[in-house]
Amino acid sequence: MKKLLLAIAALAASMTMAWAQVDVNKADAAALDSIRGLGPAKTKLILEERKKGEFKDWADLEQRVKGIGEKSALRLSQAGLQVNGKSKDGAPMAAEKPAKSGK
Which of 5, 28, 29, 95 has fewest C-beta within 10 Å? Predict the structure, then answer.
């Protein structure tokens, strides 16, 4: 029984790591929906725009998909979304927290 539980835990961990990085140009709807901050409506917009051509970079994604701006792009990148295998510049790693400004 312990071996079975260990095997299930290992499978769940590997699946989580597989979903950790999702490329917007290659992912299907389910993979995009797995990104925190993307839901069915935003995923649909992404897929519709992608039919017109792959996203060149983060700026292209932000320009073409309504509702994805600089701030949301940073959050999506932190959650694991990538464009052509690249995270958004300036996006903190998932383990890091953004620095608070002392204004």
Answer: 95
Which residue has better confidence, 102 or 8? 8
| Global pTM value | 0.69
Neighbours of 58 (CB within 10 A): 25
Does the domain spanning 21-82 belong to CATH 1.10.150?
Answer: yes
* Res. 10 pLDDT band, cuts 50 70 90: low
Q: Which 3 state secondary structure label does DSSP give 83? A: strand
Alpha helix segments (H runs only) across the chain: 2-20, 29-33, 40-51, 58-64, 70-79
In this structure, how many other beta carbons lie within 10 angstroms of the beta carbon of residue 54? 14
Please give the structure tokens belonging to residue 51. Answer: 């039919």
Q: What is the pLDDT of residues 18-41, one digit of tens each?
A: 446 999 999 999 999 999 999 999
Both structure tokens of 17: 């790591």
